[in-house]
Amino acid sequence: MVSEKYKSMLAGKSVIRELSEFAAERGKEIDYENVFDYSLGNPSVPVPKEFTQTMMNLLSSKSPAELHGYSPSLGIPSVRKKIAQSLNRRFDMNYTENHIFMTTGAAGAIAHAVRSVTEPGDEVLTFAPFFPEYHPYIDLTGAVLKVVPPNTEDFQINFTLFEEMLSEKVAAVLINSPNNPSGVVYSAVTIQKLADLLHKKEKEYGHEIFIISDEPYREILFEGADPIYVSNYYDNTLSCYSYSKSLSLPGERIGYIAVNPACVDSDLIVSMCGQISRGIGHNCPPSLIQLAVAEVVDLTADMSVYEANMNLLYDKLIELGFTCKKPDGTFYIFPKALEEDANLFCKKALKYDLILVPGDSFGCPGYFRMAYCIDTEKVKRSLPALEKFVMTEYGK
Amino acid sequence: MVSEKYKSMLAGKSVIRELSEFAAERGKEIDYENVFDYSLGNPSVPVPKEFTQTMMNLLSSKSPAELHGYSPSLGIPSVRKKIAQSLNRRFDMNYTENHIFMTTGAAGAIAHAVRSVTEPGDEVLTFAPFFPEYHPYIDLTGAVLKVVPPNTEDFQINFTLFEEMLSEKVAAVLINSPNNPSGVVYSAVTIQKLADLLHKKEKEYGHEIFIISDEPYREILFEGADPIYVSNYYDNTLSCYSYSKSLSLPGERIGYIAVNPACVDSDLIVSMCGQISRGIGHNCPPSLIQLAVAEVVDLTADMSVYEANMNLLYDKLIELGFTCKKPDGTFYIFPKALEEDANLFCKKALKYDLILVPGDSFGCPGYFRMAYCIDTEKVKRSLPALEKFVMTEYGK
């Protein structure tokens, strides 16, 4: 018989995916240009041309065996070295290639990081609002994900509730800053307070509590935002990264785990990830993509469009009377809905061809997410629809 | 604390990997050209030039969003369709795109296939000699791998011992033909007998017993070998494929599962694989590689060198008095060692710069594997070393 567990998962479809499919269907009726689809976080800006050029150069100059041969199970050493050096330059760290494990994007990074520092039944805490895929990511490792309720004042950490939930069973804390869906960056004060509390509890409980820092939006920062590197604040940190957003390469599945050299067993964790990968069918990201990314490791796509879009949306939302924390980065914004049930609110918005995602699956009911990684022209065209929606449905 | 399970796995290094590392070290002393390294199954023939040309065309003609955007979680529909059509043409099947799940090579395929048709604690049977990585592949899913002892007469299935082990707890049978390490192809008689026995036991036990058919060497067949497609013989078959060997692309991690349309729940299994992937950090092989492979789906690298190498080695081994089944395909040969302990035999061979892998980790003590996916010139140069080794150590 087929597996009951995975069969039963088929019933729970992703709300984001359903809305995105609705938008695609509606697009067939009225032309997708007229659907204001804020559902999916699929980057719209192109990969840097240097990446494409590097790929062409590799394909025309290197031998097939050099390009397409097996990668060692931890990743190609020269690639890992370049990534370590780039992180050291930018964040004043002292990584070597032995602290870098190449992964298939952030999803692959989290799959390995969680398995490397938890035993089945251990708890992993995360903070609402949070990326809903954390549930399958963590649940299927055998660890238990628990969600600390949001601090909707400023979307920093709700420390009161966090401390209550930070029991002896907690092996790791999973954070995501810049945050999907709020767009908020945790401040230096927040990260320091988090580090202090975890140090205290590590001592009290007599075991490590690791930070697994999910950082795919690390490079998408807006004016005035602080570029915080979590590992600078806390030794037992595993930084999970993906080039999906910074290089606009989501389909190429390339990222890494960087284990803080001062982390407990830092010399073992990367090798352990190689063992984990044998059981989950991972066996490294593609060799060619590893080699190409290593050549553009300090570049990003031109992401200024995201800040332009954010400002257009934020100003309009405030003008229309929404409560909304101004994002510090990412390509998401997370305003409060105009009625208590954000599901109803988002359902009504569909009549105006506005595709908004209710905050419930992010652990933050009453709010909604807009992913504005779309053309600025489309954002502009969506503003009258947003206004009409609010005026008509909520009499504002 | 870091995970005990994965930490303890660090102690158990792969014998193949250790020998390969030894060969590389020795190569620094005497030039790698003079090390007769038969340890690793890393294809030596180049990828077809059509693949490289397709990659160049894609990079220069398609938009970055088309090339590098997220792939749907089951794979790109047009790619899955082309693979289904190719299998239908070649093996008289009736797959649609809905029966194809894109994976990161055969390792990814097995990771998903086993999870989709087993519950934790279920048994999976395989047949010695077998690829040693099956142990971590299966063990870490929660299922239990049990190995049916070899039939060293002809390396077909040992049906007497198989039937004894085929208890009610067996949920799946994992087969690998053409076989690593024996190079043997299971005959039509063997596969039919296997299918008949499984049908009988399915009825007796009242549940399905799936065949998971690991087929990365499917296209590497030598003169006279029968091109058997397992799914033609047994409905409940999940075929696990990789382009690593047929296209010489091992580093690009691209393959698929093809679920027989007549398989129980065939309409669900591919979708279930999409759910499984959420928990193991898989999220599809790279978009660009998917698109490129779809354009060369009926091609293979020029693999005639493998048959030439096999014939050179086989003739020499027979001349020197070895007992050896002539391979039907792959790039492996699996002779009987000249003393009972193949570990000692292989250790002695090192003195002659011959890197041979003992059969113990393949579940077949007393035999040894040679992976001859190397230059034919090097094979020729190795023959006097092989002769000297045998003459000197075994007085033949």
Automatic annotation (TrEMBL), chains A, B:
Q: Which GO terms describe its molecular function?
A: pyridoxal phosphate binding; transaminase activity
Read off the PROSITE patterns from this record. AA_TRANSFER_CLASS_1
The name this protein carries in UniProt is Aminotransferase
Matching InterPro entries:
Aminotransferase_I/II_large, NHTrfase_class1_PyrdxlP-BS, PyrdxlP-dep_Trfase, PyrdxlP-dep_Trfase_major
By its UniProt entry, which SUPFAM superfamilies does this protein fall under? PLP-dependent transferases
Q: Which UniProt keywords apply?
A: Aminotransferase, Transferase
* All copies of domain Aminotransferase class I/classII large, residue ranges: 39-383
Q: What organism does the UniProt record list as the source?
A: Neobacillus bataviensis LMG 21833
